[in-house]
Specification:
- It comes from Roseobacter fucihabitans.
- Keywords: Acyltransferase, Plasmid, Transferase.
- Pfam families: Acetyltransf_1.
- The chain is an alpha+beta fold.
- The radius of gyration is 15 Å and the shape is globular.
- It has helices at about 10-25, 35-45, 95-110, 125-130; strands spanning about 5, 50-55, 60-70, 80-85, 115-120, 135-145, 155-165.
- It starts with a strand and ends in a 6-residue tail after the last strand.
- The protein has a single domain, classed as Gcn5-related N-acetyltransferase (GNAT) (Aminopeptidase).
Amino acid sequence: MTELRGANEGDAPSITRIDAEGLATGHATFREKPHDWSSFEKAYETGRGISLLAMDGGHVAGWAGVSPTSARDVYKGVGEVSIYVSREKQGKGLGRELLLALVSRAEEQGYWTLVAQIFPENKASLSLHEACGFKRLGVRSRLGRMTYGPHAGRWRDVVMMERRSVLIGK
């Protein structure tokens, strides 16, 4: 079992490195630059955000986060998930362990709906989210145009996924 813990500023270099690996594939996000501590903290550590790190042998092997989708009270239980696993740890079950723990933590903190927006080419991420209870809602066609990397200038579709908490209404 991997040790899971919250992030702190000292983890910033590892978070940035793992994030940059994902961005380099061109199939992780529309963001052009990897998170530094300031952007990571703003997205996942402030307000109702959540972050988890997966530690392997004392080193950060992956990270996951939930960021609120809106500041409006009616949506305070809706968040968007992000998950990144280092190249050398992919395909070993770490992502599943990390995402399931994140879902559990999010539900404990009052989230009832989690969404994920994933490029259709990112088959591993789509499979991971489905294995963790996320359902495909549909495809947002030509949602945005890539501004960096191997797909710069190309319009990209995004698969919208959602996981509803079994705790709704309890």
